[in-house]
């Protein structure tokens, strides 16, 4: 009997939490825990990136081979064809032993490295304590890197994949839950984690004792005066309902309209999560040779704008490849001009009565690549929302127009303050505008655009 079958047995004794609960207002009761709200800082931050260490000039082939030396493959007996194994041996002979993501040497200049994450637009970074597969999703940050992130003004939190696949102990093993509670709590305390991001909850919240961990974490945060959050990947019964956790976590999904609850679009830059492609470039599910395909930057921009305009946070699963860094640097360059229309803003409009995920997965064609299909469908949703995406900061409305407005833009239901000065962010010049009944009409500026992709109009409103 394998460990996953064990989970299905009703006679399985539930492991107890490995945490000693201390006094505080948070108790392991979901009615109590659901009173905890996402802090303002994450609603202000808007952009997060999973940490992968120092930027490396890796191509996709090299990126596959992070993890083990060729000699280790010989010891384990690789399931890949011998030709691939020989190809790997040649690669190692050429480039030397590539760094293993989980035991990478600390970066020499952490302040310079973390400054690059901020340049990409990130306002928080995710340190990976446990991935679905060893060495495939991210990097556990050294304390010096955590400290450097905080000096850059970045928040830092811990990611934990509850599945813990291909390692011991793992889900279903006796003693796994108290073991991971203690391990995760130790890391939280060590780095003073601003959040805990869970993943891989392929069992119930009662199995994982999620309520016990949340009560401990919230009370710990209260004691040290820290505002924290957790996502809702807390168990198969406490996932993506909009009821549990401080933010709802959608993996490369968008939502229909402004969300009634804060949410995260946990997104990827390519056509699959890195963890599903093994070190030989073979898909773990199909056994077929894999070809990476990158999401175009203009489409990433659409996804980001749509997410933020609907009350979401865009969290990027980074790949430490040359192309990934180049693409994200374009996003960062746009944010450098338009950041005031993104950071610290809130959605403009009335939230929907309930959260509805888009696209609807039941409409996915048979045989389609799940993540690429979701990406293409999400782009369609984003285009349908636009070309104007709205955010608000106090008495200022930002109307972000995707693509350069060749003619006047018309915004229904908006009335600027009398005598308001309307400008395009990045251009130090007042624009001509007029009120046409219930619509605001703005003439775009002449001259050189201040950036690429999308353009933010700053509108003082009543």
State the end-to-end distance: 66 Å
Second rung of CATH, namely the architecture of the largest domain: Alpha-Beta Barrel
The whole-angstrom Rg is 23 Å
Question: Strand order across the biggest sheet?
Answer: 5-4-3-2-1-9-8-6
**How many DSSP E strands?**
18
Number of domains: 2
Query: Main beta sheet: strand number and arrangement?
Result: 8 strands, parallel
**Helical run tally:** 14
CATH T-level topology of the largest domain: TIM Barrel
Shape summary: globular
Q: Uncertain regions: pLDDT < 50 for 5+ in a row?
A: 1-14, 66-85, 91-104
CATH class assignment of the largest domain: Alpha Beta
Helix fraction by DSSP (H/I, runs of at least 4): 25-40%
**Strand fraction:** 15-25%
CATH homology group of the largest domain: Glycosidases
Structural class: alpha/beta
The average pLDDT value, as a whole number, equals: 87
């Amino acid at each position: 009997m394998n460990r996953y079958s064990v989970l299905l047995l009703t006679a399985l004794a539930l492991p107890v939490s490995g945490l000693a609960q201390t006094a505080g207002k948070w108790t392991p009761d979901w009615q109590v825990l659901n009173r905890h709200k996402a802090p303002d800082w994450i609603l202000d931050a808007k952009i997060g990136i999973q940490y992968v260490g120092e930027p490396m000039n890796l191509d996709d082939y090299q990126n596959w081979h992070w993890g083990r030396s060729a000699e280790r493959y010989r010891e384990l007996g690789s399931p890949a064809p011998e030709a691939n194994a020989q190809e790997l041996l040649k690669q190692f002979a050429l480039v030397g032993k590539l760094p293993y993501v989980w035991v990478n040497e600390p970066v020499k200049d952490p302040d310079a490295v973390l400054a690059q994450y901020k340049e990409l637009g990130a306002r928080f970074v995710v340190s990976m304590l446990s991935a679905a597969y060893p060495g495939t999703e991210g990097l556990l940050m050294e304390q010096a890197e955590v400290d450097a992130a905080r000096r850059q003004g970045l928040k830092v939190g811990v990611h934990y994949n509850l599945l813990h696949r291909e390692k011991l102990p793992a889900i279903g093993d006796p003693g796994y839950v108290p073991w991971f509670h203690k391990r995760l709590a130790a890391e939280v305390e060590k780095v003073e984690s601003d959040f805990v991001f869970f993943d891989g909850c392929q069992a119930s919240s009662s199995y994982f004792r999620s309520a016990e961990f949340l009560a401990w974490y919230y009370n710990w945060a209260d004691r040290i005066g820290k505002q924290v959050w957790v996502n809702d990947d807390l168990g198969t019964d406490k996932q993506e309902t909009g009821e549990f956790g401080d933010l709802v976590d959608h993996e490369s999904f968008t939502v229909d309209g402004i969300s009634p609850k804060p949410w995260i679009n946990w997104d990827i830059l390519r056509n699959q999560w890195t963890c599903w492609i093994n070190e030989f470039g073979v898909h773990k599910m199909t056994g077929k040779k894999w070809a990476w395909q990158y999401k175009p930057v203009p489409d990433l921009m659409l996804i980001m704008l749509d997410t933020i305009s609907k009350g979401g946070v865009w969290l990027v699963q980074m790949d430490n490849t040359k192309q990934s860094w180049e693409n994200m640097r374009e996003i960062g360059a746009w944010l450098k001009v338009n950041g005031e229309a993104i950071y610290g803003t809130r959605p403009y409009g009335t939230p929907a009565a309930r959260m509805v995920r888009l696209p609807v997965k039941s409409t996915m064609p048979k045989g389609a690549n799940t993540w690429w299909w979701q990406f293409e469908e999400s782009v369609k949703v984003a285009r349908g929302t636009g070309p104007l995406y709205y955010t608000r900061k106090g008495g200022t409305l930002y109307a972000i127009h995707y693509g350069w407005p060749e003619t006047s833009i018309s915004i229904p239901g908006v009335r600027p303050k009398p005598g308001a000065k309307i400008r395009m962010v990045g251009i130090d010049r007042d624009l001509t505008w007029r009120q046409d009944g219930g619509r605001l009409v703005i003439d775009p500026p002449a001259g050189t655009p201040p950036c690429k992709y999308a353009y933010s109009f700053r509108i003082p409103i009543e």
